[in-house]
Design a protein that fits this description.
The complex is a heterodimer. Chain A contains no helices and twelve strands. By secondary structure, chain A is mostly beta strands. Classes of the chains: A mainly beta, B mainly beta. Chains A and B meet through strand 6 and strand 11 of A and strand 4, strand 5, strand 9 and strand 10 of B.
Chain lengths: 114, 114
């Protein structure tokens, strides 16, 4: 079946540091890929998505590129802020598009210190 | 516009008791999903409603779990009788009719079974 593997956490960075969170996946077919973020006390929010190979999703300074050859969707940000502290989840959809069940990774907690 | 709401936010019960979780999706969203995150593990899909019909319930762990969505509006997830391994955070999400629509998540219900 489908699966998503995220790097182990937690991750602690200083403000303005570069962020990379690794995500690899196993799936049949051509899934869509997502990064969700959960801020303290809130529900998950879609951060960015990519629906086909070589697509780059971007939002709020975060980027991730759908790499079919390495089955990866690593999340990057050039300069993190304290407000980026949250839990980040990599996910894929079984069918092309978000309107189907999602398979998530374990999530990783990011803490950014001033 | 109100987001997805879930009630209660926390529930602590003893093994063998019954608990009912409620989810109110965004108005007009035909798709409603239930997910669960057990401590430190992945968020796992439980089931998917389209209006009042169960589209996919492949993730329901066993027959102690019963989900309903009468009238195609809010949904309830009942656990009866609860076991220790049912502890976790239960998330609800909703989305509009068409594929590629984003799933909007609620804040989750934290269930603790003692």
């Amino acid at each position: 079946g489908n699966s998503v593997t995220q790097m182990e956490g937690p991750v602690t960075l200083s403000e303005e540091a570069f962020l990379t969170i690794n995500c690899t996946y196993t799936a049949t077919g051509y899934p869509s890929l997502f990064w969700y973020v959960q801020y303290p006390g809130e529900g998950l929010q879609l951060l960015l998505k990519a629906t086909k190979a070589d697509d780059k999703g971007s939002n709020k300074g975060f980027e991730a590129t759908y790499r079919k050859e390495t089955t990866s969707f690593h999340l990057e940000k050039g300069s993190v802020q304290v407000s980026d502290s949250a839990v980040y989840f990599c996910a894929l959809s079984d069918l092309p598009g978000a309107n189907s069940k999602l398979t998530f990774g374990k999530g990783i907690t990011l803490s950014v210190r001033p | 516009e109100a987001g997805v709401t879930q009630f209660p936010s926390h529930s602590v019960i003893e093994k063998g008791q019954t608990v009912t979780l409620r989810c109110d999706p965004i108005s007009g969203h035909d798709n409603l999903y239930w997910y669960r995150r057990v401590m430190g593990k992945e968020i796992k899909f439980l089931l998917h409603f389209v209006k009042e019909s169960k589209q996919d319930e492949s993730g329901m762990p066993n027959n102690r779990f019963l989900a309903e969505r009468t009238g195609g509006t809010y949904s309830t997830l009942k656990v009866q009788p609860a076991e220790l391994e049912d502890s976790g955070v239960y998330f609800c999400a909703s989305s509009q009719e068409h594929a590629y629509n984003e799933q909007f998540f609620g804040p989750g219900t934290r269930l603790t079974v003692l």
